[in-house]
Fold this protein.
Amino acid sequence: MSILPFDDRDGVIWLDGRLVPWRNAQIHVLTHALHYASCVFEGERIYDGKVFKLREHSQRLIDSGRMLGFELPLSLEELMDATNETVEATGIPNGYVRPVAWRGPEQMGVAAQATKIHVAIAIWEWPSYFSPEARVKGIRMKWAKWARPAPNTAPTAAKAAGLYMICTLAKHDAEAEGYDDALMLDWRGQLAEATGANLFLAIDGQLHTPTPDCFLDGITRQTVIGLARDNQIKVVERAIWPDELAQANEVFITGTAAEITPVGEIGDYSFTPGPVTNRLIGAFDKLVGRA
């Protein structure tokens, strides 16, 4: 399948205060973020021309930067204005937004206090993270060999680029064996998350989800918890062990890219998308104006 490379597209990208032609939004090879992962980012979706949960995503980008020891050169309102400016300039009514902030090339080495903080915002069309067929039947997942790190070993509450290295490795390993994604445990051996999405189990009509104490508490995750409670579905956040998957009637994952995606298989466990998952998909579609 031919994929249009991301450095050779038409359009514009917001970069350090102004819109520039897409192909001109470049950085130097000695940029600190490339060598030391001093970079944070967000994933956002546009529905009918409006960014979903823009304030929450923008605040998390700022907070993630602070966890990595730097301040964005924009206030929350300025970051939101820049995002909306980019949305208007691109004219994409339904798409994906990628804000990113990183340390520049002014200093090379582990220490990087002298670096300038750069910010960019790019938007492109991205209808679905998984195939339509997989989203109907449920995606197939294998167990990842990489575990989410303990919170005293990495800034696990930040959406930081370096934390996704093991996600890429796990995703590649899964796809090489014909799976759609991988399920990661945490350092204790408890259920954690997929490579880029949070996990939910429907057990006897209730929703159970791992406590996000070493991985990202996703904004879509928070949204789905709210929708479940609005629909009188009890939500239990707790430590969940892998063998408890045997008790689950339904499983799904949530994220900006994945939205709400049913899971049909995790290792030797099989699931069928059912009433809880479908009810929440319907509620989410209504919330974003798709229903």
Notes: The helical segments are 32-36, 54-67, 76-90, 132-137, 165-176, 219-230, 275-287. The first strand starts at residue 12 and ends at 15.
